[in-house]
Amino acid sequence: MTYSAPVERQGGRNLDNEIDLLQGTLDMLILKSLDLGEMHGFGISSRIQKLSSDALQVQQGSLYPALRRLEYKGWISAQWSASDNNRRARFYSLTATGRRQLEKETANWSRLSKAIAAVLRAREA
Amino acid sequence: MASDRLRGLLARLKALRRNDEELQTEMQFHLEHLTAQLKSQGVPHAEAVRRARIEFGKSVQIRESCRDESGANQASDFFRDVAFAMRRFRSEPGFALAAVFTLALGIGVNMVLFTVLYAVIFRPLPVKDPGSLRNVYMDIQESNPANESRSAYGSRYFESFAEFRYMQLHAKTAELAGTAEAQLSLRGPSPASLHAQLVSANLLRMMGGVPAEGRFFLPEETAQPGNAPVVVLSHAAWRRYFNGDSGIVGRTIVVNRTAFTVIGVANPEFHGPLTVVPDVWIPLSMQAITRPGESLVDDPNAAFVQVFARPREGFDNRNMVAEMSVLGQQALAAHGSARTARMQVVRASFLNYPDIMEFAGPGLLVIALAGGMILLVGCANVANLLLARGLSRRREIAIRLAVGAGRFRLLRQMVTESLLLGLAGGCAGLFLAWQGGVAALKFVPASVGQLQLDVTPDPWILFFAVALSIGAALACGLLPALQSLRVDLTPALKSEGLLDARGGGRNRLQSALVGVQVAVSVILLVNASLILRGFQRAGELDTGRNMHGLLIASFDLRQQQYTPEKAQRFHEQLTETLSRLPGVQAVSVSLKEPELSSFRAAVSAAEGAAHSNDVRVSFDEVGPDYFRTAGIPLRQGRSFTAAEVRSHAKVGLVDEDLAQTLFAGNALGKWVALAGPPGTREQFEVIGITGRTRSLAPGEAPLSSYYIPMQGLRFMEARLWIRYRGSPAAVSRALRTAVQASDPEVTPGLHTIEENVKTALAPVLIASWAASIAGGLALAIAAIGLYGIISFAVNRRLREMGIRMALGARARDVMRAVFAQLPGSVGAGLLAGVAGAVGLGTLLRSVLYGISPMDPAALLGVAGLLLMVAVAAMWVPTRRAVRVDPASVLRNE
User: Which residues of B touch A42 (CB under 8 A)?
Assistant: First the structure.
């Protein structure tokens, strides 16, 4: 099963500025944003956008399949309840396995980014 | 299992639809928030909606990818597999039909066996609340057989009336009811032989019967052996014999010369707890009128009551079992028996006596084996079809693998195909078994009575059918599927014609399957021909008697309430009348219905013989002229005189065998005593030696014979044997007239010896038919399989053949190349089959009449037949290979 998770900069029809996320990164971002508290789909995408200072915008075409996938894997759970303006919305929250998964992925990520940074520095030198 | 899977799929599909709706709402919510956000940044409403839509993307696409991610596809994959398989079957209807038909036959045969066995042995009774109903059986442990005698009618695990009453009165945890079966003669405007159930007062109500007219029995009517001549009619008997007369209750009917008052009619659906549907119910306490002179109901050692039990309110099965084991022992002790009783409480069903399994076990095993073998041959055949098909599909499979299909996914596809075949075969087999069972029940002779056996499918039958179908599907589908996945991609994609050399594993598998088929066919065919030869042998067997011109008459003297003295007078009178008839040569009485019944005894002592103990003999009590009537030669001494029979003289005759065993030939004047109850041991003086005889009944080991004059009680059930010349019709007419003159109430039953032989050999005949059909079926399936394999191999190698012939190979060489494939597996199968057949044949000894299981005629005959069929099956496609026109084959490539 393969999937790609394009995440674009705001206003991003500009190919030069597009940031391609590595496979699985979107999952990690979703898990992280849910670690801060339960949220609905729209909230998750705005949260990621806000936390990345508008650098990352999650496309809906990637977000909802990813949410379904994470739900199927049992890392997040969903529940219908009322949103701030009293509309029915599907709220996602992190499960215990999801939290463990997030820790694992965070650790992996920091190892990976350190390694990549080291490589890049070496080339600059 | 399968239904569970289906239910799971449906649930998932339903969840899928719900998920879709939820997703729709969720995305709508998202879209509105997006629009609101844009508007808050100052974008006008219409533009905000448009931009939000663009940003959101194609909602259908999103929904589709959401589905992929949430595992919903596993459900739809299954349906896709099914749809794909159906398309394939439609494009190859011949293959699908052949496979389904083969599996239907194999599964059907096994379903018939299972359905019948299940109906007889396991199926819950057609009565009220059958689940809580139990049978209570008494297993008597003989402490010292010489001290007490116990007689059993029906099963040795039944109880006597006294024991049953004791247990019924004292049982606190359960309600007990008892029953027995009997034949009654109904007199009146429509005389008939009635099937009667003798019952305790509570049985009808306990089994869920409701009086349609009148009432059922009262407790006091069945409590004491004696006089409560009341009868309850079945609804059908009421309609048939009394035209549904609404004033029937209170009327008197005469059965067995005893006047009974009709007290009620049962509801139409009620047939009681036994296999045979009864016409009437009478109290157990009236047993004496069913066997006059042998009042079982007064004999605490005559076991004839089958006991049913149901736990009372507040008690469970364990309580009941515990109490029964105590009560059983007490019931024995109550009539002064020193023996011990082990009680067995078993779930109620038609045939659940513990002795049934001991008796029928080996036969059932043979039948189940034969059924399994037919299914095995069928599976091997379908497997071969699938293998051949896998070969022609290898290009399709190679393409699918090349474009990235998972091997597991393909395996699932192929297993789904064979599961569909198996289930279709199972459905057909189930239907076959059901209708076959219904049809077979119609062939039960009227003298046996109507049987209430239920062969309609129930959950257990369905479960067995599904299990059998899935088992068969996997047995025939898994190996070929795995085999066809072992494709080497590159050559397979290029061309199919060049692949011949690489099919080694497939060829080995095909050959092994052919070997199995041949072996099983040989086993079934050899046994069929052994049984057939046994049947022929039985017809030619020297029985030591004259097997022609003998008429046997039986009478219902018991039902007509005769006393032994009156019965003896009846026979003497009839003998005298008949002897004077012109066509009659000799008349006498015997206990036996020749070929159909026999009596055994053991010699307990003989004059001057050291090892006389436990010599088993076939024993008969006969009249004065018996040996001339039966056509048994007298070697030495003389037969009984009329005076000896009348005075119960202590004289007897032995046959040559017994004379040799006991007295080294010098038997005349010596005495012999038979084992029997103590105090009744009598010594009989040998006055004559007869020729040796044997019975034709299957399973009867030849025994020495011992004859004494018929005495007393035995006349009640004596047969009259009449040796005649000319046509039996005249004699039987004369006999009927004579009986009519002597007592118009008595009905004679007449058979010729030829009819008896036919009846005695019927099981062998049926067995030989069944075995022949099974063997023929297996052979046909195997032949089709062989034909298929060879023609397939030929098709694959047409090009090679063409090249060879173009290069100058002769037809002989080509044929050799094709034939060279199979002799190994056919030969190995033949040998294995012969070994298996000889092993199974030893189990059949009882119907072989001395034919050895290694009978060369049967073995060589079958081997020859099989080789001929194999060669013929291989010949046709091989011819095609030889006729190949090299030019056209090469051009086609």
Answer: 29-30, 33-34
Cα B401 to Cα B398: distance, rounded to the nearest angstrom? 5
Instruction: Provide CB contacts within 8 A for B245, sequence distance 6+.
Output: B238, B251
Mean pLDDT of chain B: 81
Q: Which tokens belong to A92? A: 């996602």
Chain B nearest-CA distance from A68, in A, is 6
- CB-based contact B176:B161 (threshold 8 Å): no
The terminus-to-terminus CA distance of chain A in angstroms comes to 39
| Contact at CB, A64 and B23, closer than 8 angstroms | yes
Distance of CA B424 to the CA centre of its chain: 25
Interface of B with A in 20-79 (CB under 8 A): 22-23, 25-27, 29-30, 32-34, 37, 55-58, 61-62, 65-71
> What would the two tokens of residue B618 be?
């076939």
For chain B, say whether A66 makes contact (Cβ under 8 Å): yes
Per-residue confidence (pLDDT) for residue B892, from 0 to 100: 62
Which one-letter DSSP state was computed for residue B451? B
Among the listed ranges B334-343, B502-511, B816-825, which one has the minimum average pLDDT value? B502-511
Helix (H) or strand (E) holding B346, with range, is strand B340-347
ipTM: 0.72
- How many Å separate Cα A81 from the centre of its chain? 22
Helix (H, G, I), strand (E, B) or coil at A8: strand
Q: How many CB pairs under 8 A join A and B?
A: 61
pTM: 0.63
CB neighbourhood size of B397 (10 A)? 21
- Look at residue B242 and tell me whether its pLDDT is greater than 80: yes
DSSP B130: G
Q: Across residues A18-40, what is the average pLDDT? A: 79
Each residue's pLDDT tens digit, B858-884: 888 888 888 888 888 777 777 777 777
Among B19, B26, B28, B64, the residue to mutate for chain A (most A Cβ within 10 A): B26
What is the pLDDT at residue B877? 76
DSSP states of A61-92 = HHHHHHHHHHHHHTSEEEEEEE-TTS-EEEEE
**Cβ contacts (< 8 Å) between B65 and chain A: which residues?**
3, 61, 64-65
d(Cα B162, Cα B251) in Å, to the nearest integer?
A: 31
Tell me the torsion sign for CA atoms B278, B280, B281, B286.
negative
Binned at pLDDT 50, 70 and 90, residue A3 comes out as very low
- Mutual angle of helices B459-485 and B354-392, in 10-degree steps: 30
Residue of chain A nearest B66, judged by CA positions = A65
Q: How far is A110 from chain B (nearest CA, A)?
A: 27
Higher pLDDT, B683 or B818: B683
Q: What's the maximum distance between 2 C-alpha atoms anywhere in chain B?
A: 137
Q: Which of B33, B62, B66 sits opposite A42 (nearest CB)?
A: B33
B22 to chain A, closest Cα gap in Å: 9
B27–A64 C-beta distance less than 8 A: yes
Q: Please compute, for residue B384, the number of CA atoms within 13 A of its CA located in the half-sphere on the CB side.
A: 31
State how far the Cα of B29 lies from the Cα of B775, in Å rounded to an integer. 72
Q: How many helices (H) and strands (E) are present in chain A, helices listed first? A: 4, 6
pLDDT per position as a tens digit, B409-430: 788 888 888 899 999 999 998 9
Strand partners, B749: B554
Neighbours of B221 (CB within 10 A): 21
Instruction: Mark yes or no for CB contact A64/B33 under 8 Å.
Output: no
For residue A16, pLDDT over 70 is answered with no
User: Using an 8 Å Cβ cutoff, are B272 and B133 in contact?
Assistant: no
**Is residue B7 within 8 Å of B78, Cβ to Cβ?**
no
A64 — contact with chain B (CB < 8 Å)? yes
The Cα of B60 is separated from the nearest Cα of chain A by a number of Å equal to: 10
